[in-house]
């Protein structure tokens, strides 16, 4: 399936991409963020563990006449570690992993995974980090605090840009069911 909950966040990213930017899109799935960055003239490196998703991502890039991209099939953590070892850096890094937990009892392990992923992403990012969580058991403050902890480990100062983002308005959040407020998307400038 194609996840429309990130629709507005994908559109918003276009305002921050400059022609010629190098963008790393981790857990790129079918290329939603990649397409919006590519439309603005960025060079894209997308990573996903699903070969099938990457085939669709390639189709999406071609449908949008985007030529300057490469997709790597692999484990996001392993690929990011390899890129760090190779001395790579990117103007913008996007982290949009699947849910790291579907149960409350696994929140501690999920937070460790988010901390590691954001640490690696920040080590690779020069100007901007876009980081997401769709684990509804991880609330927005806990997620944001995890990213802040990652930035301290990476020795990078981050500044939140444009406020707190969540799912697109057609993915309704009701006060009776807080589980519906699952998507957290944060844009950070890096110094």
Mean pLDDT: 88
Residues in helices, as a percent range: 25-40%
Write down the secondary-structure element order: HEHEHEHEHEHEE
CA radius of gyration is: 16 Å
Counting DSSP H or I runs of 4 or more residues, the number of helices is 6
Residue fraction in strands: 15-25%
Shape: globular
Largest sheet: 7 strands, mixed
Termini gap: 36 Å
Assembly type of the chains comes to single chain
Flag low-confidence runs: none
| SS elements, strand count | 7
What structural class do the secondary elements suggest? alpha/beta
Strand order of the largest sheet: 3-2-1-4-5-7-6
Q: How would you describe the overall organization of this protein?
A:
The protein is α/β, with parallel strands linked by helices and 191 residues long. The protein has 6 helices and 7 strands; from the N terminus they run H-E-H-E-H-E-H-E-H-E-H-E-E. It has helices spanning 7-13, 32-39, 51-63, 76-85, 107-124, 140-154, and strands spanning 22-26, 43-48, 69-73, 90-95, 125-133, 158-165, 184-190. The chain has a 7-stranded mixed sheet with strand order 3-2-1-4-5-7-6, with helices on both faces. Helix 3 (51-63) links the parallel strand 2 (43-48) and strand 3. Helix 1 packs parallel to helix 2 (32-39) and helix 5 crosses helix 6 (140-154). The longest helix is centred in the middle third of the chain and has 18 residues, at 107-124. The mean pLDDT is 88.
């Amino acid at each position: 399936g194609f996840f429309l909950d990130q629709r507005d966040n994908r559109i918003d990213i276009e305002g921050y991409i400059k022609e010629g930017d190098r963008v790393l899109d981790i857990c790129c799935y079918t290329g939603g963020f990649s397409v919006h960055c590519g439309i603005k003239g960025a060079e894209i490196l997308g990573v996903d563990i699903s070969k099938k998703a990457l085939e669709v991502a390639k189709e999406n890039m071609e449908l949008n006449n985007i030529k300057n991209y490469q997709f790597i099939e692999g484990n996001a953590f392993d690929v990011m570690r390899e890129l760090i070892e190779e001395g790579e850096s990117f103007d913008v890094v996007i982290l949009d992993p699947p849910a790291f937990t579907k149960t409350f009892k696994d929140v501690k392990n999920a937070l460790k995974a988010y901390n590691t992923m954001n640490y690696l992403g920040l080590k690779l990012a020069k100007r901007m980090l876009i980081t997401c969580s769709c684990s509804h058991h991880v609330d927005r403050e806990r997620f944001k605090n995890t990213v802040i902890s990652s930035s301290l480990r990476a020795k990078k100062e981050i500044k939140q840009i444009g406020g707190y983002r969540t799912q697109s308005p057609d993915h309704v959040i009701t006060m009776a069911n807080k589980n519906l407020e699952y998507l957290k998307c944060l844009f950070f400038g890096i110094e």
